[in-house]
Amino acid sequence: MRNPRSHVRQIHELRFEKATVDDIPKLTENMTRVFNNDTRRFRGKPEEGSPPGYDDGSFLMKWGLTGNGQYPLGSFYKILIGAEKRGKPAGVFIVFVGEKVGKPGNNVLGTILVDPEWQNRGIGSKALQYIFTTFPAKRWKLGTTEWARRNHHFYEKNGFVKIREVWDPELDKEKGGVYSYIYERVMRN
Prior knowledge:
The protein is 26% helix and 29% strand. The chain is of the alpha+beta class.
């Protein structure tokens, strides 16, 4: 009997590298596919994802390369698959280290995403393990929208627990806002 996932491409090499301004266009393409796909699947809307700037590069510039008043410059990485010189961007993550945000030992996962083409292959979980090793902390927090059910499953599978819900009027202005779920993971020594 044929393996039902045999058509899935194998991942031969997975790397995490610091992203630069030159990476923004390709990573924005990844981000746009992720949010548009989630919007279609979980909200029944055509290609109208969130957060603001997800589809024009301004989100990655603001949160990954320039910082803002709430968070200083994040640690901005691209997830690459394939040979070193020809690696294909498959995703991105941004981490805010506790020391930089005035909360030593408490890091924030600003975003993590894997292009739909590469989802369900363990890439996100491997990226989290890299993040936890590279940016050690006692506690991790993150936020995700109420409708992103796949994200909830992913975070819970990787040891996060939902600790509260916060109303965010910026994420769906058409509806007047949407709830963000705040997740936390307390690390074991």
